[in-house]
Amino acid sequence: MKRIALAHLKGGVGKTTTAVNLAHLAAAAGIRTLLVDLDAQAAASYILRIDPHDAAKAKTVANATQGSTDHIFPSDAPLLDVLPGSLSYRKLPHLLSEQKPGKDPIQEIFKRVGKGYDLLVVDAPAGLHLESEAILRAVDLVLVPIVPSPLSMESFTKLTHFLEERAASGGRTASSGRKASDGQKAEKRPVVRGFFSMVDRRRKLHRDTVAAPHPATLWDVEIPAAAVVERMTTERVAITGVKRPGRVMPAYRELFDRVVRQLDLSIPANPE
Ligand SMILES: Nc1ncnc2c1ncn2[C@@H]1O[C@H](COP(=O)(O)OP(=O)(O)O)[C@@H](O)[C@H]1O
Ligand SMILES: [Mg+2]
Predict the structure, then answer these.
(1) Residues lining ligand 1, judged by CB closer than 6 Å?
(2) Is 272 within the bounds of a domain?
(3) Calpha distance 249→244 (Å, rounded)
(4) Residue 270 is assigned to a structural domain of this protein
(5) Residue 177 region, left (φ>0) first, then alpha (ψ -120 to 50), else beta?
(6) Looking at the chain, which terminus has fewer C-beta neighbours within 10 angstroms, N or C?
């Protein structure tokens, strides 16, 4: 089972939109996928039409830690399920503070809920705090949407360095001040890759930033800014369900292909 997380210091950059679309494309390709909505705003769960009352009743995190799976909901798409976002994720800091040596609660949750899936797509909350750090530590690939500007390039570089530095120190971070899991060997670093999000080619700033030399960690994939994407939230469908998605569709497909190659995901020959 492979895990990816959409992450960024900022909100409003396309994390949730991308998480939903990648999860949909994966499921459509025959990959058994679970979208893990770790954002308390639960926007991904909303787009995927999960009833918030059901989700709240399931007390998602509490159940996940206890091994129950009744917190997982099917989506309208075959092979795509959802672990919905809920305000119960406020409990994450508490879970982390009770972390036992050698046990990473987020890793444990992912392992438990991920049984039977080929891919976990995690919509992580914005920011870099203990919860998001723990989430990023527990995935294979961190995908960072970059709305083109020198400042967002700078914050992408910072995030990449932060994760590299943490890996080099065996999990010790400036914010936690201690090893993530004492007694364990240095953890593997998630691979961090960026892609351009909401690109508006009419804007010089966008054109210049995309054209400027960038690190190899930044994929040359460009999701255009297009009003059609906003229909995902009004119609509550993935981009694959929006009529006439236009040029954003090949862009999301390209991003999905890059993820498949990066994670070496196997696509069944005859997806259902
Ligand atoms: N490529 C795009 N073009 C136009 N609007 C977009 C695009 N991607 C996302 N949006 C819109 O921008 C807003 C923020 O996107 P979202 O994915 O929720 O960001 P985040 O999860 O990073 O906060 C949403 O209203 C979404 O519909
Ligand atoms: Mg979001």
Answers:
(1) 8, 11-17, 43, 198, 223, 225-226, 229-230, 232-233
(2) no
(3) 9
(4) no
(5) left
(6) C
Could you tell me which residue, 167 or 134, shows the higher pLDDT? 134
Residues 27/2, Cβ–Cβ less than 8 Å: no
Cβ-proximal residues to 88 (8 Å cutoff; 6+ apart), any chain: 56, 59, 60, 61, 62
Task: State the total domains in the chain.
Answer: 1
Mean pLDDT of all residues belonging to the chain: 85
Residue of the CA atom closest to atom 8 of ligand 1: 14
Mean pLDDT of 150-157: 91
Atom 11 (ligand 1) nearest CA: 230
Q: Whose CA is nearest to atom 24 of ligand 1?
A: 230
CA of 121 to the centre of ligand 1 (A): 17
Judge whether 268 lies within some domain: no
Q: What tokens does 18 get?
A: 């991308």
Say which ligand is closest to the CA of 10: 1
- Quote the distance between the C-alpha of residue 92 and its chain's center: 17
**For residue 231, what is the domain's CATH number?**
3.40.50.300
- Distance of CA 124 from the midpoint of ligand 1 (Å): 14
Q: Which residue has the higher pLDDT, 8 or 184?
A: 8
The pLDDT tens digits of the residues spanning 1-28 come to 999 999 998 899 999 999 999 999 999 9
Range(s) of the domain holding residue 102: 2-263
Higher pLDDT, 57 or 59: 57
Does 271 map to a domain? Answer: no
